[in-house]
UniProtKB/TrEMBL annotation:
It comes from the Bacteria. InterPro entries: AmpC-like, Beta-lactam-related, Beta-lactam/transpept-like. Residues 48-327 form the Beta-lactamase-related domain. Gene3D superfamilies: DD-peptidase/beta-lactamase superfamily (3.40.710.10). It holds the Pfam family Beta-lactamase. This is Beta-lactamase.
């Protein structure tokens, strides 16, 4: 359900810049560059005051069949689903069917620490329940249907990672359990609850809980020597943690409906926006200069997504991708920079070609005093490979002058072979690593 690499979850807080006029032609050029260099496939949407300001479809719904993406193509939206689930939970609270301080033990007592874990902790990732999608075992069954009993047993076996309410740590398990709680409270399937309580009232005609690949749904791809089709998760598994299928237009209407009071009260919306240790209830806060956006992002089966709303400006942004070989945060910043009149630079994807012998000067293990992370660099042919602690091996793109990039994570690595040092720059952070095997 999620790739275990150093992708960042949020837009980074950056300093103020000089305002210039909007230039959507420049944004077209930006996306033209991404498309021609096989960096991004998907749909993007920007709205202001409820009106569409910019929309674009890039790439293919199905590469093998040569079918292009269209504005109404459906995508798996991954963890944006958690916003839908949270709305359903808060509706149940408003109706007196649930209480935020109710214990998990009243519904699913077999989970460790269930007598200490509340509904609110599940919503805000403070339960301590282990994230079952992080386990290697997950890769052995994610394409096969799972029952309620099987999922509860898997989550039960995962145990607890920390004492409830002592910190926040992301776990899909929380929202799978919330799905079962909602189904029990209403005696209806999660799929029907989403339809009756969210998509029907807001007239979201292309949004549903997935059950299998629909005819209007995009296939997803990863990039490795060309676009390669991804395996897909059986939607009986992610449920309220990640099973929604939707479009950019529908998601834009969903978050605007949420903030305009069409789904829950202002008090309940305030609970969603209440941030503690980086987590709201089913919602994140994304800083953009002095402004604040609220929303969620997601990733599943090669799909990646982001939905955000800036309340003070009434600006909505949505990205749904079925193939990304670039950092989506950078794309989001380019769209927002265009909207707010800041300069957008067209990315250059010019690469340098190094020989195997030239790569030798970078090889070895590097450690930092700033963070508890080690990075090991090896080579495959004339490609430099990075492997961070607990992460898979990742091929880097050479940019010349001892500079390499991991574009998908927005990470740049600058080597100084004579000193045996490597400087990692990512999301505004600069971290110095020194080679340990000099």
């Amino acid at each position: 359900m999620q790739q275990r690499i150093i992708y960042s979850l949020f837009l980074y807080l950056i300093s103020a810049a000089t305002l210039i006029a909007q230039d959507f032609n420049k944004l077209d050029q930006y996306f033209d560059s991404l498309e021609v260099h096989n960096k991004f496939m998907g749909n993007v949407l920007l709205k202001g005051n409820g009106e569409v300001l910019y929309a674009r479809s890039l790439g293919f719904k199905d590469i093998e069949e040569g079918v292009k993406l269209e504005e109404d193509t459906q995508f798996r939206v991954g963890s944006i689903t958690k916003m839908f689930t949270t709305v359903l939970v808060l509706q149940a609270v408003e109706e007196g069917k649930l209480k935020l301080d109710q214990k998990l033990s009243e519904f699913i007592p077999e989970i460790e620490n269930s007598d200490q874990i509340t509904i609110s902790m599940l919503l805000q990732h403070r339960s301590g329940i282990h994230n079952f999608t992080n386990d290697d075992l997950y890769d052995t069954y994610f394409t096969s249907p799972q029952t309620r009993e099987q999922l509860i047993e898997i989550i039960k076996e995962g145990g607890s990672d920390f004492e409830p309410d002592t910190k926040g740590e992301y776990s899909n398990s929380n929202f799978v359990l919330l799905t079962f709680i909602l189904e029990g409270v209403y005696d209806e399937s999660y799929r029907e609850l989403v339809k009756e309580r969210i998509t029907k009232p807001l007239r979201l005609e292309h949004t549903l809980v997935g059950q299998g690949k629909g005819s209007n749904e995009a296939s997803s791809y990863s990039f490795e020597n060309g676009w390669q089709k991804e395996q897909v998760t059986d939607m009986s598994i992610p449920l309220g943690a990640g099973a929604i299928v939707s479009t950019t237009e529908d998601l834009g209407n969903f978050i605007e409906g949420l903030f305009s009071g069409k789904l829950i009260s202002d008090e309940s919306l305030g609970l969603m926006k209440e941030i503690k240790d980086g987590y709201g209830r089913g919602m994140f806060q994304f800083p953009y200069y002095e402004k604040k956006a609220y929303g969620h992002n997601g990733g599943i089966d090669g799909f990646s997504s982001m939905l955000g709303y800036l309340p003070s400006e009434e600006v909505t942004i949505c990205i749904l991708s079925n193939g990304s070989n670039y950092n989506n945060n950078t794309i989001i910043l380019a769209i927002l920079d265009t909207q707010f009149g800041r300069e957008v630079k067209i990315p250059s994807f010019q690469t340098a070609t190094l020989t195997e012998d030239e790569l030798d000067q970078y090889l070895g293990e590097y450690a930092s005093d700033q963070i508890p992370l080690k990075m090991t660099f090896s080579k495959e042919g004339n490609t430099l490979i990075a492997k961070a602690t607990g992460q898979p091996e990742t091929p880097l793109e050479a940019r010349g002058n001892h500079v390499f990039e991991f574009v998908q994570a927005g990470a740049t690595m600058i080597f100084d072979p004579e000193k045996g040092e490597m400087t990692l720059k990512q999301g505004g952070a600069t971290i110095l690593f020194k080679r340990t095997n000099l």
